[in-house]
Amino acid sequence: MAPKPRQRCARFAAAMAGISALTACTHGVASDGTNTTEIELATFVGPSTPYGEALTEFAEQVSAETDGRVDLKIFWDGSLLPGEEILDGVSTGRVGMGYVNTSYHPTELPLSQLVSVPFQTGDTATAQAAWNELLETDEAFAAEWQSNNVVNLGIQSVTPMIISGPETPTGIEELSGQRVRATGHTARAVQLAGGSPVGLTINELYESLERGVIDSYTSMNLGTVPSLSLHEASPHIADPGLGIYSIVGLVVNQETFDGLNGADQEALGAAGRDLGDNYLETVERVEDEACSTIREAGGSVTVWDGPEVDAWRDLVGDELMNDWESDVAETGAGTEGEEFAAAYARAIEANPTDGEGALDRCANQ
Hints:
By secondary structure, the protein is α/β, with parallel strands linked by helices. Helices cover 41% and strands 19% of the residues.
């Protein structure tokens, strides 16, 4: 029997307001009589990034483990929804799944913003394990995602924040009077060090460096540098010890998830758990390749000495943590900021790793 045409499935969202929204999924029947579901997945990343490669593996795994009953269609580089709209798009059912950068959503995801407070951990695998542990064990953090009408299948951590300039950055005294691209809590850390933070998207960085709009940049990781050709405009990179600064979550609309049978829900969850390991393997390779590209082009990668890191940490003190705790209190996140920060610190301590980070490997070459 030939496959039946797929029909677009719809649901009504925000019924109290009389607003309707379409879930980005289609249902049909395969040639063997098996029900099939196609789900659109919106992401702000490209297919060649570490996230993109891991997402491709995720989609392939879901298809294989569901025998083709669930087919994911990935829309790259914000082509379906821009990054700042993906959470709302999944929440309201405009798209079935999405890759959400928590940095875009300080109001909707206030507890997640803790990651942007500097000097907590610089270990990507540790941070990722800690956040996923909290997703499973901390009711308030799980509720933060559930309140947005999404199921979080897993969290990935970005790699440590770098700082870059035309000359090798060696300490905070060089930030004084500098115009530095920085975002979130890092912008305030730059300000405390005497710099002038400038808010720019990553796509504006190269031209801003070339035109002299900024002198240097941070709020960036090593692996992204070559893809934006930033090493051509700002060849020298350092690890200033700020650490992990953002996380991303792979989410599925609650109604879309509920519409799958139990076996397919489990397959989606298992693939989400594997996504994190696949991402860590990919990002390690990509960052080592980035190191080679930067060095071959005449750039450098260094790591700040302990006293230099401590000098910046001492300047920041508790101010940024206190700011985040105040933000949490204002949003009514269901827990005290201080309590959640302590839970995150315990999760970091409980998930140590022995591996050497890419910045250290590159600096030691």
